[in-house]
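step 4 of 6: structure.
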Amino acid sequence: MKAFKFGKLAVLLATSAMLCSSTPVFAQTAKASDSVNTQSLAAEETAKIRLTRKSAAYWQVTFNNPPLNIIGPAEVRELVKILERIEADPKVKVVVFDSTVPGFFIAHYDLLKPLEDSTGMEPGPTGMHPVPDLMVRLSRLKAVTIVSIRGRASGIGSELALAADMRFASSENAVLSQFEVGAGFVPGGGPMAYLPRLVGRGRALEILIGADDFNGELAERYGYVNRALPDAELDRFVDALATRIASFDQHAIVETKKLVDRASMPPQEEMQPGWDAFITSVQRPAAQARVKALVEKGLQRPGDVEKNLGQYTAKYQE
Amino acid sequence: MKAFKFGKLAVLLATSAMLCSSTPVFAQTAKASDSVNTQSLAAEETAKIRLTRKSAAYWQVTFNNPPLNIIGPAEVRELVKILERIEADPKVKVVVFDSTVPGFFIAHYDLLKPLEDSTGMEPGPTGMHPVPDLMVRLSRLKAVTIVSIRGRASGIGSELALAADMRFASSENAVLSQFEVGAGFVPGGGPMAYLPRLVGRGRALEILIGADDFNGELAERYGYVNRALPDAELDRFVDALATRIASFDQHAIVETKKLVDRASMPPQEEMQPGWDAFITSVQRPAAQARVKALVEKGLQRPGDVEKNLGQYTAKYQE
Amino acid sequence: MKAFKFGKLAVLLATSAMLCSSTPVFAQTAKASDSVNTQSLAAEETAKIRLTRKSAAYWQVTFNNPPLNIIGPAEVRELVKILERIEADPKVKVVVFDSTVPGFFIAHYDLLKPLEDSTGMEPGPTGMHPVPDLMVRLSRLKAVTIVSIRGRASGIGSELALAADMRFASSENAVLSQFEVGAGFVPGGGPMAYLPRLVGRGRALEILIGADDFNGELAERYGYVNRALPDAELDRFVDALATRIASFDQHAIVETKKLVDRASMPPQEEMQPGWDAFITSVQRPAAQARVKALVEKGLQRPGDVEKNLGQYTAKYQE
């Protein structure tokens, strides 16, 4: 495997390992899950990310990795395989992304895996690291992508939602956030490219640097999501919209999307710098100390820290 | 008359004519209305598009073509003539666009005229087909343009509203939509250029590809219109705003608008590709079949299809 | 002192002076306040613009120039000095801007000082006139800037808010406006560059050319401010957000902001043309007559004109 900027990072990792002896952040290993059986993706109820073909034209991708729907290198690889299927299929017109996990759409990126598991991943077809590669390819799919957010969508959960075409949130039960600056590092999945173009520079800076939780209703007012809907109506609304689009002519969909993208797609060139800023920043002692403090309080385990992440990032004392 | 891409389209039209023998879409002829008496525009109460000079500085353009305010090649030519008057006048500062037709601002482009009536039109001064030419010149007027939307503004009705400077809608009685993708073709009047820059990529994709009806209140929340106002207040509000602007100094208006446009005018280069995508897509069998089915159900005649167009586009069975 | 485009303006000033014999607009002199004691800025309760270091990371800039918080050349110089301190400080992470003056955040630019006091100012480090220079440098600070708006923020008050990173307004007591076109001239502090990128072209044209007052609630709906908050909660909210950001890691803040700015910062090249358009337009007889009429009714003095500026600009009779 060709290491991604391996030389530089190996050095930095040595530093961060020394700083984090009791609760190593980005330093526990769980390689077993890396060998994903791609054959089983469509069928298995037990898949961490489940692909359901509701019809030839309407597919569903369901995050099913309790208790928090954490996304790490293994899940990124699963998502890339699903993305390849969507890219390769000539008939799919619309894909809905949702979650089976109560309280969580996607909590955030895996902060307990060794960082080299992330940095060592081979670049994707865009030439970028698989995380920005995934985001860009998700945005550029011919199929229309709709994200249905119930529960927390923080960090890479928010970033996946932003890279998709449309976002709908539960008024009562959605929480969106880019918590990263609150934990001492720069978000890596491209929200600095996507958010300002959706909500304007002022609200983007508040979301990204205030780094606090946004409920569905406020996310709608800001334009962070298309619309917030009463929780009891969310599934029916998203399904009706997807069914509707699946019934339309593919040529008309694809050509229309192409021209919308010409007017408004964030330039790909802004994505890799965001990932690089994440990797650089997360290895700094300041970030390591903040993440360590959050992990000690309960980050990446079910409980109050994950539920009220916006409050906990502000409690750090230098 | 110099045909616009005539060679290619003649071939495609032959194909579409064969497919649509019972209800020819874009294939009935009504050339009488093409000879517009431009002299009468300002005065005649019976003009399909009525130009009223409320004062030297404040003009009004009223769509008055019942029962649906359909815009076809003849009406485009009328609009172009009105546009030329606005362009040529040194004193007009503000132009309000509204409708006298109950229930309709502008239903949509004429889908029953022969397509060659549209494709055969001579390019406008921008070098583009008269429809994108009209939109670009509308946006670039020195005069400020305000659209008052009561009733349905679909397709080219929505596109005219987007190309104007400001849009206000009746909370109770406005319906905006880009229904085209639901009818199997790409919108031709530039909404892929205008909408993403007003409402962001996510909401633009929902409007354009979901292709459903938006009421005034939701249109405001999305930024599709400046503001929705109670129906009883709409006329007074728009008139007060226009009167206000008409009282201001023209130099200040023009120079301010110039700098706003430098920051935010959609590039003209995005407009002709949208029109070309419309012409290509509308001739495909998939679009011809969908439009034919809609026409058979009542499209372009008063009744439920035009009132609830968003519902009917989703009812098509392949 | 090196004059800023002095030759041309001297001629134009001669013209305007002749037109405004009874109430000279931009023509009274008060040079005393030009010599600002920069040493005292931080400490003095009596400073017109007060800099308070609430902590090493959290600073506050308070406009304290009753009765209207007018900003003229002298106050621009004070602001530039404060800006230089923020730029030079390695530790400050967040700066809140607010006002002590009841009813006014900042009324507008000083319209009673001689215009040459403004045009004669030496260019700032960006090479631009100090007003656009100030706006650009405010936007490009490494520190996060938050504006808390209670009372009227018109003209340069609105422009400072737009050039800052985030804006929060009192629901009950904030009034935002770009009144300039209503007074016959083009706004000079860059809102044509900032507003369309925050609120879209349609709403920007309404704000800038309608030139009317926007209350906090409507400003939020338009995206003119991040959020409107009940007056009783505004200070606590802004303080909590600033305290929160001040507790975060500076590297993460700065690198995140850099990438947001890459995606959404208005280009500096649009700022000087706005200032030039202001200077040119404000010297025209039409503007001089309108400003003179407003001054005669009470502009730049406490009273109804300043409170309801949007109404008074529309009352001018040519």
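step 5 of 6: annotate
 - Confidence is low (pLDDT under 50) at residues 1-24, 27-43 of chain A.
 - Chain A has one domain: 8-315.
step 6 of 6: archive
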